[in-house]
Amino acid sequence: MSDEVDVAQDVVELTNTVAVLAIRHQLQAAGREYCQSCGEAIPVARRLAAPWADTCTPCQSVLEHRNKVGY
Ligand SMILES: [Zn+2]
Asked: Which InterPro entries match (predicted)?
């Protein structure tokens, strides 16, 4: 019985380790950490949702507005 518990604990620990490594890998692949425009940190949720983004959401909104209206 204790062997089964040990194996189960090992599986849980391994699963947790894999999950942590997967998240770290995802974050490393998830684009810029700081906004190109204002230098503020880009939120993790945005980095994961838009890994190509090099600006934070407020700066991106300003850029899009400028592109739309021309100034
Ligand atoms: Zn910004």
From this structure: Znf_DskA_TraR
